[in-house]
Task: structure prediction
Amino acid sequence: MEKFRVAAVQLNLQQSLPSIVRDMKSYIRSAKKKNVNIICFPECSLIAGPKKNKEMLTRIRDYCKANEIWCIAGGHLKEGGYVYNTALLIDDAGNIRGKHKKVHICDSPNVSAGSSFEVYKTPFGKIGIAICWDVAFPTAMESMAKKGAKVVFCPMYWSYDPWAHRAKPKKFEKKILQSLILTRSFENLAYHIFCNAYDPKDRTVTAYSAIAEPHKILTEIFGKEGMIMADINLDYLNNLRQNYVKEYHKVVSA
Result:
């Protein structure tokens, strides 16, 4: 599929788990009505322990099946005796088609790090997933592009460090995120979706989400809850990649 629509939900995570799941279902319904093919939720949208998170993800999978939509969602999940900060790729039949475990962790000590960045085959082409701080590492993002990913989803819970800014921290942290999504999109000639959280009670959370192509940010949201959408055009992207090879010998993937 050369053209499809994606959505990123800047979800309010300062709620009870049942309220969060209710809102996720509401956004899934809304996205389906707006012809979205893949909807992404923030990092650790499910905030209970691994056992409860797994149970809630089963409900989300069933809801994806009922609405025939792909989804990226996750939380802390247990596997092989270890807990990972995980994002699942769920297809429109409710099946798990991919799983990314956050590699560059800054979670609690009981959360283990993942070890790889994979790409996943979908009807929309190959896609990659990175979680929050993973995007700060250029080689990690590049590795997915080299494996053929043309769209990379980045669920986040991005907070600023008070010691990093002298004044107006959210204003300048937003600029960092804008720079990051454009840089990653340009250097890998790929679409990127930053999907952040909204938390009205945590002043350090930088609620900024965006969808970008290599040369511009297509849509963004800042400082509030909501859903943004954009159309992905792989014909445009393929043509762009061919021109960069021809003019500048820049080869992204084989």
